[in-house]
DUF1003 domain-containing protein
Amino acid sequence: MDPLTSDQSKPHETPEDVDHLRFHRAHEHMHHPFGNDAFARRPEAFARFFGTPLFLGSQSLVVLIWMGISLSGLSAFDPYPFILLNLAFSLQAAYAAPLILLAQTRQADRDKATSEADARHREAIAMANQRRQRDAEIHSQQLLQLLEQNTHLTEVTK
């Protein structure tokens, strides 16, 4: 069924009866970028978390503590060039980059689908407005004819 023709508003429908998201329902399957199961939602949560101020602050704090412990001499687990820290950053980047790129690609797909649904909705609204204008013109013409008939009858009865 064509979504544009399925938008035929019935006169007895109230605004509360109308499903305002009807054009977006077809794209609900795109809600989660990695899928809808629990295993797929975890990578999305990680990808979203990587850009938050909490993550950046936490990572900075861990790095400062790591460097402080290594430089203070309390523990020599990673001396000055911080090779182990560099390896940890590389490992994090190796996992974070593909997750972020995948989330970005899927977000672009969702944005496109949302844009198309919005365009269909705007088109349906425009068509409904044209119908209402046409109906208003017809009613105006009918009222004008009735007024002319009434005027004519009034003149005849005088």
